[in-house]
Amino acid sequence: MTHHRETRAVRMPVPEPPRGTPVAVPLYQSAIFGFADPESLAGAMNGPEGDFAYSGYANPTVRALEDALTGLEGGAATLATSSGMAATSAVLHSRLRAGDHVVAQRALYGGTFAALRDLTDSWGVEVTYVGGDDPAELRNALRPETRLLWLETIANPTGFVADLPALAAEATAAGVTTVVDNTFATPLLCRPLEHGADIVVHSATKYLGGHHDVVGGLAVFADPDEYRRTWVRAIGLGVVADPFAAWLLLRGLKTLPLRVTRQCASAALLAERLAGHPAVAAVHYPGLPGHGSHQRARRVLDGGYGGTVAFDLAVPGAAHDFLKRLELVLNAGSLGGTETVAMHPATTSHRHLDAESLRAAGVGREQVRVALGIEHPEDLWADVEQALRAG
Ligand SMILES: *Cc1c(COP(=O)(O)O)cnc(C)c1O
User: Cα 5 from chain centroid?
Assistant: First the structure.
């Protein structure tokens, strides 16, 4: 039977998959998938394994991204989410109950700090902050109700590197799950699961996407059951990744090694030159031998020390004027993309912290953070240098 034009306009045939395999992962921009019979549809609704039924649960493009990260981090399974904070929240909400206890490192991403404070206010989850470099301090902080240890590979903006192997070993011995936010290191510079962590979270918005054009997150799990529990929670929270975002992240991933190598090299060059500049009082980059985390960074990182550099200007109150004089480097937040960006943490990313907390986080009023892109490093240095000189 020939259908009416109205029906044919809606129900155009979807082409069969081509015989050749597409070189790029196709974008499956479809919210639902149809089946020949109700039993197949019912089966597909059952879990993240098996067929795809609804993209709010799982999607082939998203799955390709998840599988890529599982391989890069050396995990058992990965959950892609709508943002880095979505990955963090899915893990926190899946793992914690009212009255549980968390140990987190003091130099912590502001959004994670806020999420933990919210869990304290809403659910009575207690949080103890530790330095992140002393296993004995962690041992003393652990309680019978401790469920999670939360660390970061390279902390923002000071470049603090936690002692992942020693702290993860301490947590594992106590039956505590170790989560590492690996956003700043990427799986190229560090694979926390190899150092004993159980879960790795990423803001894919940063290096993995790498072009300042997509927001996304990932959580990689060593244990498939932990993955499944978190997947169920992520569906409940409604934070699974969108197929188009996953497609952009897959595209970004292809050039991750090229970009990160360049960004690390440019950051190292900038850090060295800043350290010798009279207008700069201090440089915070774990690649510098004088940085407090340098020895740990050498053990935990491999192939570079990250693509962000923070530094303190020698003249008080000069940070905003320095940022205004930049011509090539953009005044923008975030990091890890192709364009170099700079910001003043005390009035942006860390604006909610009081003077005491700013000091604890190692963030001074005179501090500027530069997140390197992939422009020519000499052009970037020339811009930074002219902005310093004019001061
Ligand atoms: C940006 C960031 C996040 C949050 O990621 P979003 O994608 O912005 O939600 C988490 N951790 C770190 C270290 C980050 O830099």
Answer: 49
Mean pLDDT of 213-219: 98
Q: Which fold has domain 38-253?
A: Aspartate Aminotransferase; domain 2 (3.40.640)
Beta bridge partner(s), residue 370: 309, 342
Torsion of CA 54, 58, 59, 61, to 10 degrees: 160
The best mutation among 206, 208, 369 to test binding of ligand 1, ranked by most ligand atoms within 8 Å of the C-beta, falls on 206
The predicted-structure confidence for 277-298, as pLDDT tens digits, reads as follows 999 999 999 999 999 999 999 9
Strand order in the sheet with 101-105: 77-81, 217-221, 199-203, 177-181, 146-152, 101-105, 126-130
In the reported structure, the alpha carbon of residue 203 is separated from the centroid of ligand 1 by a whole-number distance in angstroms of 4
For ligand 1, atom 8: residue with the closest CA: 84
pLDDT at 319 over 80: yes
Q: Which atom of ligand 1 is nearest the CA belonging to 152?
A: 13
Q: If pLDDT is split at 50, 70 and 90, which confidence band does 391 have?
A: low
CA distance 309 to 289: 14
Domains of the chain by residue range: 38-253, 256-390
CATH number for region 256-390: 3.90.1150.10
Ligand 1 atom nearest residue 85's Cα: 9
Minimal-distance CA residue to ligand 1 atom 2: 203
pLDDT for position 356: 86
Q: Which atom of ligand 1 is nearest to the CA of 205?
A: 7
Strand (E) positions, the chain?
77-81, 101-105, 126-130, 146-152, 177-181, 199-203, 217-221, 280-284, 308-313, 330-331, 341-343, 367-371
